[in-house]
Structures are given as C-alpha cells and as structure tokens.
Amino acid sequence: MSIQRPWSPDSWRTLPIRQQPTYDEPVAVQVALDQVRSLPPLVAPGEVISLRTQLARAARGEAFVLQGGDCAERFEDCRRGPIENKLKILLQMSLVLTWGARMPVIRVGRMAGQYAKPRSKPTEWIDGVEVPSYRGDHVNGHSVARRTPDPQRLVDAYFHSSATLNYVRALLDGGFADLHHPDHWDLGFVRSDQRRAEYQQIVGRILDALQFMPAAGATSEAFRSVDFYTSHEGLLLDWEHAHTVEHEGKYFNLGAHMLWIGNRTRQLEGAHVEYFRGIENPIGVKVGPGMTGAELTALLDVLEPDNRPGRITLISRFGAGKLSVALPGLIDAVRATGRTVVWSCDPMHGNTVSTESGLKTRDVDQVLAEVQEAIATHDRCNSVLGGVHFELTGDNVTECVGGPEELGVADLSRQYESFCDPRLNYAQSLEMALLLTKGLAERREGRG
Questions:
Q1: Is 0.70 topped by the overall pTM?
Q2: What integer is the mean pLDDT of 313-329?
C-alpha cells in the first residue's frame, strides 16, 4: 500500500483522529501551543540522526536497545530524587545487558515527555459522578476536581520535559554514569540467599569488566561512555506538531528523539500514521493481539517506504504464552518484504491483571517469561531480538508482585503510586536485567 497524497506537518488534520482530549476553550489551546512552538527545541536533529544510526545496528544484531521508564510521568516527579533513581536503574540495567550481550546497549528513556496516556473510555464514574478519564498530566489531573482538560498543561509539560532532560544531561556530564564502585550495587533487597549469591557473582564479573576487561573489542571505557535518548508515545498530535521543525529540507520532531504509535492509534488511514510517516525520527510501533501480517506490512509501507535501517522499531506486546504463537507469522511477513526493522519486546502490557479489589498489577515471573519467550521465538525464526521495553521506576514502589523482594498482593497497598499501569520497582528492574543477561549470554554462546 502506498500513499499518493503529499505530506506536510499538518496534513494529518484532514484524517480521522482518536484519543484526543476535548477542551472547553479552543482559543486557549492555540495560545498554549503557540507558546510551546516559540520555545527552544528539547533535542537536536543531529541527536535524532545519531539514534537512528544506532538503531540500525540493533536491527543487524550489533547492538541492543533498553527502553524504559514510567507508564505515565507525573509533573510532581520532576524532582532530583525520582530523576536520579530512574536514570541510575536504567544505567545499571544497561551495564548488566552490555556485559551479558557483549555488545553496546542503546539507552532510551520513557521520560522527559511521557505525560499523555490513551484511555479505553472518555469518561469514568467516581463516587457516583461521571468525570473525564485521566489522560495523563499533559491533559488533566488525577484528582476528580482537576479532570477538566486544561490547555495550560501543554505549556507545563514542555517545562517539566525540559527540566527533566536538562538534569539528566547534567548528571551524565557530571560523572553520574560512573557506576563501577560496589557501593552502587547493593543487593540486600534479595530475600533468597541463593539468588543473592548468584546475582553478586554476576555483578562481580561486571565490575571486573568495568575495571579491567575489554568489551566487544574495546576498553572498559565502552561501558562508561553514555548516550541517552528520550522517547514517548506520540499521542497528542497538536503537541507533536508544535515540536515539528524543518531542518535541511526534512522535518524533525524535536520534542523527543524517538516516538511510538500505540495499539489504539495505528489505523492506516488515521491521523497518527499520517503524521508519523513524514518525520525523520525513529518510530516505534506497538504490535499486539489481532494484528495480521498483511496489516503490519501495509503499515510499514506507509510509515517507511524507503526502508531506511533504524527508522522503525516493532515492539511486540502479546503476553506470556501467547507471543510464541502470534509472533512467528509477523516475523515471516516482515521478512518476506525485505524490510529492515528492530524487533523489541514489551513484556508489560500483555501481562497486566487486576486483583480482587480492582487494582492493576503484573507478575514479575510472567514479565520475565515473555522476554525469555521472545528470545527463544526470534532464535527459532532465525530473527534478532534487538531490544526490550519496560515500564519501570527507580523508586521502591509496590505495584508488581514477585521479584527479589517476593512481593505479594497484600504488599501492593504499601506504596502503590502509579495513576495508570503498574511499574517494576528498582529491585525488580535490576533483577530483570540480571536474569535477562543470562538468556542473552546463552544466545551469544549458542551462536558462538
């Protein structure tokens, strides 16, 4: 399938659009967007091109993508502690994966812009009152009193994104990435003595590698140099349009390095696909239940007709036990077209369940099982799993069950902070990387 109509930054406005808020004051929305448009870009075109180049390596199996962060960032978490904790766990996970895969890890945060979320219904009932659904801090507040979409939040989102990104860059430039000291790797949260001993052994080997050993033909400096990229779901198209800038005859969204299209907005003749097909940024596409090979290849034809490596990342999200059935046909369909894509695994969204009280949670064992299933399935299909995509935080929340702390349903109420989907906490995230690296090491040795 090919699109004959010309593209422009606002050609999406002529097509059907989903998941957009309804504002009471359209004029105030335009004033806010004009202000965002006048502000400095959050990222640079050269950084976007650099990420696309690195993702092309991941498509060839020469690098691995770690994408992670909050389900939906909150303005209140734009503070030193939460940002430091999130960056620390992403860097530690990347070091573990670098050691396990023996290849560079591309770090992409779900941060500095992940403030909007799609919702199943436009409204919900709370205490007998029907109110607009919470769509993320980008649109409205979580409290019932703040559910009316507020245009000022479009401007607030820019400044919170800018502050987050500025602090991340300051931390990296200031040596925050130097995590080779054992004090940064406390495994006291692991309740099982056997598991703790196993993880300490892995961490010890990683620290030795950081200090003395070459990695993939380079010195330990390869572990210490840090490129960090930002990403978010490109949901609010007016917001994304406000960040779209022409540079050397091409259009870049300079609100983030990478954006992705979710399951609810990937319609071939929809506004989101129309907008995304014209920008230079790397694009992620969530691939889940119900998608056919024909639909996927048609989507690729529209989004990236030139088949440029690094432009498209396909993020599978099926659920443990389902991926091995659904994914092979999609892999075969993409391969038949000669397309070059990065295959990534999102093991979070397909493994969400609700407790008897209605609280959303995820079982860490199921999350890990889907990742392991993805590794095995790609190997069986002679394909390459090029990355993983987690919803996580560096804080000690209690939103997912299982993991090294052996959290149960009864523990969830202790520190459940997410307003949307449950996230892996610090301990669960680090364990996920430690266990995943075993699978990557086994794959590497098997391909020997």
A1: yes
A2: 97
